[in-house]
Design goal:
The chain folds into 3 domains: 219 residues, no CATH class; 256 residues, no CATH class; 45 residues, no CATH class. The protein is mainly alpha-helical. The chain starts with 10 loop residues before the first helix and ends in a 15-residue tail after the last helix. The chain contains 19 helices and no strands. Keywords: Cell membrane, Cell shape, Membrane, Peptidoglycan synthesis, Transmembrane, Transmembrane helix. It is a multi-pass membrane protein. One of its GO terms (molecular function) is lipid-linked peptidoglycan transporter activity.
């Protein structure tokens, strides 16, 4: 039997993923700072609970109405035109996407503002009347986030289709910094831990308006790199012929998928409003921590692989498609299991770092409860993109809908079986169960569509990663509990920080050692690619960072020929892109990169 291609076989994908991961770490650190400041200033209060519910509602509505459709549309619609250097088609498709987005979401934002009171009452029926009234007032200010999210999704897809990976990760960092400043300003005006009955209308408006300003920064900052592409965008409702043939199926797939996702999230948020008033804040923190390893470890590989998968499929190059997908999936599996081990191993100190002792144990249990789901959620990131690139929208939709709808079913079940005080951990466990179902269904769908070669070596990587994650998670948990036991059992914030860092180091060392011994074939090249990216310095002159992802050897002499393409065709493709994109673009990334 032929051995699967080593993980570095798509070394340029790994290099691009490492770039995305490094920037994502910085962005997520800013996000953690935002969460920490929110926890310190508002989370334990009744105003904090109303704020979480109201601020999440525009995102829920956006995802249901347009988010999934847009996210699934942009790269598949643009990949062929970008690969061929057809700037006119790229501009026309982008203009049509933006036109439809604003046409749909601006009226919807007005409708949300008008119906703020019943919407908050529906979602937050566990909140008090005063909380619901405050939440409705804030929701009216949050409503403009809907069209802003839509513009941001389209611009992100356009940039990633052009292999411009940095700005879509930098934008959330800038947004987090903006919102942190808003939280601190609010605290300066109203005081720390101000409740609904204590805050003035001016302070409430500062909080809600400043949060919406963060979304303005998140989306509109992407106009800076978009301008460098030189696309001439015009309002239009008409797509080019090639895009028109695919847009309907992709939009329906995204819409159905995200509807199921948001049903799960809405019911989960509703469930955690029962019990302690701090539950929404604890759930929000645990969910944020759960997203961290997913965004830093799993998503970069999926994002870096997507354009190449779409381009290979558009060219009919099944070999390139499979040789890109298989190592990307193996990497996602290993990294997701590493993230799961880290969540389990550091849950106790992280809970004590963010919350008071009476809430810390609940937070730790919720963080650990989310951990098993990282594997399924990581597979969701890469395999839905793989299916969309193939045009297999029905398979992706069915698998994702079933997985996400499993979450509310389990949340309601666990909510009845477990005590009210365990409501947040119950929802976390329900999320993990649904994500594991989702991941398994997607594996089956990809194997049926693309064949076993598209998932070559995934079973081996999964077994090695599961063993490594189990031992590393147990080791990290033992280390954290031992460190807590050295004190009085209630660590201070600084002690919890040190304990979390030491426990994390134990998890990382154990996972790497076990994974290296059991699956060196995948671990060595992936680790090499990451270290190379971390150690690479930016040249003194030239393009932007995302334009300068160098060749795998680093000496500029590699032959960047795609599998299955002749040297003549490869040369012609490079000439075509240079013709239409006169700015210097490194082709080290282009042949083997997916976003």
């Amino acid at each position: 039997m032929k051995n699967p291609a080593p993980l570095a076989g798509t070394g340029r994908v790994a290099g691009a993923a490492a770039l995305i991961a490094v920037l994502t770490v910085l962005s997520r650190l800013a996000g953690f700072g935002r969460t920490a400041v929110f926890t310190w200033t508002l989370a334990p209060t009744d105003l904090g609970g109303a704020y979480v519910v109201a601020n999440n509602l525009p995102n829920f509505i956006f995802e249901i109405v347009a988010g999934g459709a847009l996210a699934s549309l942009v790269i598949p619609l643009l990949a062929g035109a970008v690969e061929a250097g057809d700037r006119r088609a790229v501009a026309a498709t982008t203009g049509a996407l933006l036109t439809w987005t604003l046409t749909l979401l601006v009226p919807l934002a007005l409708l949300v503002a008008l119906l703020a009171d019943p919407l908050i009452g529906l979602l937050g029926d566990g909140l008090s009347l005063a909380q619901q009234q405050a939440g409705a007032r804030m929701l009216r200010v949050f409503a403009p986030q809907l069209p802003l999210y839509g513009v941001g999704i389209v611009l992100t897809g356009v940039l990633q289709a052009h292999r411009r990976f940095a700005w879509p990760v930098i934008a959330p960092l800038l947004s987090s910094v903006t919102v942190i400043a808003v939280y601190l300003a609010f605290t300066g005006v109203e005081g720390r831990l101000a409740g609904v009955g204590e805050v003035s209308r001016g302070g409430e408006l500062l909080l809600s308006g400043g949060t919406t300003l963060g979304v303005v920064v998140l989306s509109l900052s992407l106009l800076i790199p978009l301008r460098r592409l030189g696309l001439r965008l015009r309002p239009s409702f008409s797509f080019p012929a090639d895009a028109r043939a695919r847009v309907g199926a992709l939009a329906v797939a995204g819409l159905v998928t995200v509807t199921a996702q948001q049903i799960a999230l809405i019911i989960s948020l509703n469930q955690v409003t029962y019990g302690a008033k701090s539950n929404p804040g604890v759930y929000n923190l645990a969910l944020t921590i759960y997203f961290l390893p997913w965004a830093v470890l799993a998503v970069p590989l999926a994002v870096a692989a997507y354009p190449t998968l779409a381009a290979a499929r558009a060219a009919g190059d099944e070999r390139a498609y499979r040789e890109t997908l298989a190592p990307a999936v193996r990497g996602v599996v290993l990294f997701s299991l590493l993230g799961a081990a880290a969540l389990v191993g550091t849950a106790v100190p992280v809970g004590h770092f963010f919350f008071a002792p009476e809430v810390a144990d609940t937070a730790a249990a919720a963080i650990a409860g989310f951990a098993p789901g990282l594997l399924g959620y990581g597979l969701f990131a890469v395999l839905t993109r793989a299916l969309y690139a193939r045009g297999e929208t029905r398979a992706a939709t069915a698998a994702t809908a079933v997985g996400w709808l499993t979450v509310p079913a389990l949340a309601l079940l666990f909510g009845h079986l477990l005590p009210l005080g365990d409501r947040v951990p119950a929802v976390a466990l329900a999320t993990s169960g649904g994500m594991l179902v989702l991941g398994a269904l997607l594996v089956v769908a990809v194997r049926r569509s693309a064949g076993r070669a598209a998932l070559a070596g995934v079973g081996r990587a999964g077994a090695a990663g599961l063993l490594a994650a189990t031992l590393a998670g147990l080791g990290g948990t033992a280390a954290s509990r031992w460190l807590v036991g050295l004190g009085d059992g209630t660590p201070t914030t600084s002690e919890a920080l040190v304990q979390g860092m030491l426990s994390g180091a134990v998890v990382g060392a154990l996972f790497l050692a076990v994974a290296w011994l059991t699956d060196e074939r995948d671990v060595r090249p992936l680790l090499t690619a990451v270290l190379r990216r971390l150690g690479r310095r930016r040249p003194a002159t030239g393009g932007t960072q995302e334009e300068q992802i160098p060749p795998e050897r680093g000496d500029g002499k590699e032959q960047h020929q795609r599998p299955g393409l002749s040297a003549k065709r490869e040369k012609r493709t490079e000439w075509e892109v240079r013709k239409y994109y006169p700015r210097r673009v490194s082709f080290a990334l282009c042949p083997q990169t997916v976003t």
